[in-house]
Amino acid sequence: MKKSVKELIIHRKSTRNFSKKPIEESILNELKKQGQQSKALYEAISVTFEISKGKEITKKLGVTTGYFGKLFEAPHYLVAITDTKEGYQENMGYQMEQVLLAAQELQIGTCWIAVIHHRQQINEFFNVPRGRTLLALSPIGSEVEPFGYKLLNRSKQSEPSIRKSLDEFVWIDSWDRPYNESKHGSLDGFEAILKDAKLAPSWGNEQPWRVLIEGEQLHLYTIPFKKDEESFNPHKIDCGIFMYYIEALAKEVGIESNWSRESVTIVSPKNFQYIATLKLNRD
Ligand SMILES: Cc1cc2nc3c(=O)[nH]c(=O)nc-3n(C[C@H](O)[C@H](O)[C@H](O)COP(=O)(O)O)c2cc1C
User: How far is the CA of 136 from the centre of ligand 1 (A)?
Assistant: First the structure.
């Protein structure tokens, strides 16, 4: 990528209205390459990205997927299939977001869609082998303005969606000490990193990430997913995207770091679920 990750993150947004015009083959090949080269969060998990015709996907998935069972019409769809080993949802967020940022750099619109319901039938339909699952999709195409938009006199297709402030999702040393800018300052550069990382997309824009900073370690938690009956938790995909943003933004300002799952003993309030810990690589 030529643009910085920071620049891409600041300008990204979901696209939901696509031109019917197919994307050039060379661009689709570039996206496939980005998928193959994307860095995994957990290397033991294998993810494959395929690009399918938009019509095939909307026909196969019907009304089973997307908010309110709605998939967008687009000339192509990126389809992501993964092993279902521990951490696979976070890994998907971390890896697929790299492809979506590459698409953004190529001025291609995308929108995250997670397969939440009817996964067994969908996997059978796509011939996904046991031990793997079709977890996420994104329409791919050029953005167009929705019909009638100009008549409504709107200047932009969509306003940037709102994000929480740091004091709503960051705590320092313990869960009764929310981050306070005047008291805690720049957090050795992590305040700026978190302010950009919080622009990450998330399911329903719920921004489920919760961060506890303890010395040089950053522990990441997620809020529980309210639809308890589902074994699947899309918030973990959101956390994976957030993890990629933090690590990549830190790298751009010269801070090398990596995520790992630790045996963290800090009991969290409100059933927050532990995801992973970021540690700085000092040498
Ligand atoms: C895992 C995941 C699943 C999502 N599923 C959908 C979806 O089914 N339909 C949709 O319109 N947007 C979906 N989104 C997009 C979010 O609604 C969007 O990221 C959020 O509202 C913030 O807006 P922005 O991406 O424009 O910044 C999803 C996002 C994520 C990360």
Answer: 11
**CA 15 to ligand 1 center in whole angstroms:** 9
CB 65 less than 6 A from any atom of ligand 1: no
* pLDDT at residue 271, rounded to an integer: 86
Which CATH number is 166-280 given?
A: 3.40.109.30
Q: Is the CB of 13 under 6 A from ligand 1?
A: yes
Q: Provide ipTM, 2 decimals.
A: 0.99
Taking the C-alpha atoms of residue 197 and residue 60, their distance in angstroms, rounded to an integer, is: 34
pLDDT, average across residues 155-180: 85
CATH fold of the domain at 5-140: NADH Oxidase (3.40.109)
Identify whether the C-beta of residue 78 lies closer than 8 Å to the C-beta of residue 31. yes
202 lines ligand 1 (CB under 6 A): yes
Residue 69 pLDDT level (bands cut at 50, 70, 90): confident
Sign of CA dihedral 198, 201, 205, 210: negative
Q: Do domains 5-140 and 166-280 have the same CATH topology?
A: yes
